[in-house]
Each structure stands twice: as structure tokens, then as C-alpha cells.
């Protein structure tokens, strides 16, 4: 655990690439070894996470312990959304804790992610291709 996958653009040579690295580590450009990189919105990681969630059927009640879930549901309700049992919460889609658009329903996770990506200009790739 502790590994993250992000898309980067190298500011030195303009190469775009995907790197998996430890959360605390900074990758370098595979073409020119520069560490001057710009990280893209981590939607790729979101999509991978979703696929894993779906495989493992982990819903909200599996993602959070009781008090975390209560807090999250309360936050969501404040913003006009009542989370469902088979929702998955993707913090990468949230602009603030409990953001309704971060609740992805299991019936159509890809459709939801695409919609949020389009609305918020996040980059989507992986099993959701824009
Ligand atoms: Zn480079």
C-alpha cells in the first residue's frame, strides 16, 4: 500500500506519462529525468479505484467506520443529497467533504464519473474514456 498512480506532464520536454510511485515520492520524467512535472487531476486513480470497489463490492458501509459514515452522510444531506447504501464515495471527485457529486452509485459508476469529469474539467481515462 501507499502507492499512487498519477498522470504527469514533464515541463522540461513536454512528455506526458503515467507514473506509479510511493505517495511521498516525486517521480522523474522517463525521457529526460527532469523532476519538473505537472500532475494531472488524478481521475485515472479514481477510475482504477472504482473498478476495484466494484469487484470487491465495497459500498459506503465498507468504506467507512460508523462515525465517519455518519459525518459524511450528514455533510451530504446538508448539500441536498442522501447517500444510498450502494453508493461509493470517491474523495477524488469531491471539492469538499460530503460533496454530493463524489457519491457514485453502483448502478452506473462510469456514467456518473464521466458526468462529473465533464462538469468539473477533470481528466478521465481508463475504463471511462473521454
Ligand atoms: Zn522530460
Stretches with pLDDT under 50, minimum 5 residues:
126-130
Return the string of H and E elements.
EEEHHHEEH
What's the overall geometry?
elongated
Q: Determine Rg (CA atoms, Å).
A: 16 Å
| Overall pLDDT level | 79
User: By helix and strand content, what is the structural category?
Assistant: alpha+beta
Helix content: 25-40%
- Tally of structural domains: 2
Describe the protein's architecture and organization.
- By secondary structure, the protein is an alpha+beta fold.
- It has 2 domains: 1-40; 41-130, no CATH class.
- 33% of the residues lie in helices and 18% in strands.
- The protein is built from 4 helices and 5 strands; from the N terminus they run E-E-E-H-H-H-E-E-H.
- It has a 3-stranded antiparallel sheet, covered by helices on one side. A two-stranded antiparallel ribbon has the order 4-5.
- Residues 126-130 have low confidence and may be disordered.
- Zinc ion is lined by residues 10, 12-13, 15, 29, 31-32, 34.
- Residues 10, 12-13, 15, 29, 31-32, 34 line the site of zinc ion.
Quick rundown:
With 130 residues, this protein is of the alpha+beta class.
Topology diagram in text:
Blueprint: E1 3-10, E2 16-22, E3 37-39, H1 43-56, H2 60-63, H3 66-78, E4 87-89, E5 103-105, H4 109-120
Antiparallel strand pairs: 1-2, 1-3, 4-5
Bound molecules: zinc ion (ZN).
Amino acid at each position: 500500500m501507499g502507492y499512487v498512480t498519477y498522470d504527469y506532464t514533464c515541463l522540461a520536454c513536454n512528455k506526458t506519462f503515467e507514473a506509479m510511485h510511493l505517495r511521498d515520492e516525486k517521480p522523474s520524467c522517463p525521457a529526460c529525468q527532469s523532476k519538473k512535472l505537472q500532475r494531472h487531476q488524478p481521475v485515472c486513480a479514481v477510475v482504477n479505484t472504482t473498478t476495484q470497489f466494484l469487484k470487491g463490492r465495497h459500498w459506503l458501509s465498507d468504506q467507512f467506520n460508523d462515525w465517519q459514515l455518519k459525518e459524511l452522510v450528514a455533510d451530504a444531506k446538508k448539500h441536498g443529497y442522501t447517500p444510498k447504501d450502494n453508493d461509493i464515495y470517491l474523495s477524488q471527485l469531491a471539492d469538499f467533504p460530503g460533496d454530493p457529486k463524489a457519491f457514485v452509485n453502483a448502478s452506473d459508476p462510469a456514467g456518473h464519473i464521466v458526468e462529473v469529469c465533464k462538469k468539473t474539467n477533470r481528466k478521465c481515462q481508463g475504463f471511462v474514456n473521454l
